[in-house]
Backbone:
């Protein structure tokens, strides 16, 4: 069997950055935190990325490629209600994977002009494709909305789908990220987006929409993977390692916050273990005489 080539430091940096940005917010994760968590020197990190915005831009590039692939597939299909469900399922999967981009959008765009331009282009592309899809539905006789309402309807559908997960985070931040919450919030977002079509649908299409909503999968976006620090960091045989205290404590507290419902945790440690480890981290903070500093990026 051919052995897989090991991931490069650049790949590991991007993988961990995406995970920490999603879990803790991009503004709260510094390049120093990333280097320490990976077990590499800051110089090694800066060899691959000049600063944190460079990391964000690279992650956004991955998001752009994944999104363009999804949009191209949709553009090649006939416009149907069932096709809209599949399209939204793919979109919500991407929005979940790169959720920090939408949740931290104001902070990111305020300092990154390049990202501002690229984000605008994506929104315009999504809206234009949705508009074309609605026009096709209208030509097929499934959509009865006047032609001058289609652009507004397309915009509303993109706004709701793009920012639904941010809305869910505000509604229930403590449960956000658990497997059950991801599935439920994704279903709600898809229903809310598709419901915008309902007033304008012909009767057969409305019946198809009702059937489509009833058949939504139990888990559209998938289950998030629990933090697994050892498979990302730079291998150093024989050297024991643990993530930085500030990052480790935050992750443990997040696990403890959802431990009241064991169905929320599969890959993560059992609730009692999470409580015990979090208590150990709290004790370490007390011994140090101060709370762990909030990571900031001074680059």
Residues:
């Amino acid at each position: 069997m051919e052995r897989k080539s090991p991931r490069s430091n650049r790949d590991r940096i991007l993988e961990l950055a995406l995970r920490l940005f999603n879990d803790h917010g991009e503004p709260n994760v510094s390049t120093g935190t990333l280097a320490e968590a990976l077990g590499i020197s800051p110089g090694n990190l800066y060899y691959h990325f000049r600063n944190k915005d460079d990391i964000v831009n690279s992650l956004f590039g991955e998001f752009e490629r994944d999104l363009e692939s999804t949009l191209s597939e949709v553009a090649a299909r006939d416009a149907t209600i069932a096709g809209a469900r599949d399209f939204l399922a793919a979109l919500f999967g991407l929005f979940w994977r790169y959720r920090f981009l939408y949740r931290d959008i104001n902070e990111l765009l305020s300092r990154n002009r390049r990202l501002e331009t690229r984000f605008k282009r994506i929104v315009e592309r999504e809206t234009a494709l949705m508009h074309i899809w609605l026009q096709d539905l209208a030509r097929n006789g499934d959509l009865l909305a006047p032609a001058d309402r289609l652009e507004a309807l397309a915009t509303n559908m993109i706004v709701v789908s793009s920012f639904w997960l941010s809305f869910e985070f505000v509604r229930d931040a403590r449960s956000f990220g658990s497997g059950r919450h991801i599935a439920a919030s994704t279903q709600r977002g898809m229903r809310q987006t598709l419901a915008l079509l309902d007033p304008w649908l012909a009767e057969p299409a409305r019946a198809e929409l009702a059937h489509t909503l009833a058949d939504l999968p139990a888990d559209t976006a998938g289950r998030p993977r629990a933090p697994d620090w050892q498979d990302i960091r730079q291998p150093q045989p024989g050297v024991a390692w643990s993530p930085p205290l500030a990052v480790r404590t935050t992750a443990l507290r997040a696990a403890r916050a959802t431990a009241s419902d064991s169905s929320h945790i599969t890959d993560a440690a059992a609730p009692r273990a999470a409580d015990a480890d979090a208590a150990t981290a709290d004790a370490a903070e007390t011994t140090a005489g101060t709370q762990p500093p909030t990571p900031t990026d001074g680059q």
In short: Residues 186 and 198 are 19 Å apart (CA to CA). The domain at 53-214 is CATH 1.10.357.10 (Tetracycline Repressor; domain 2). The longest helix spans residues 113-139. The radius of gyration is 22 Å.
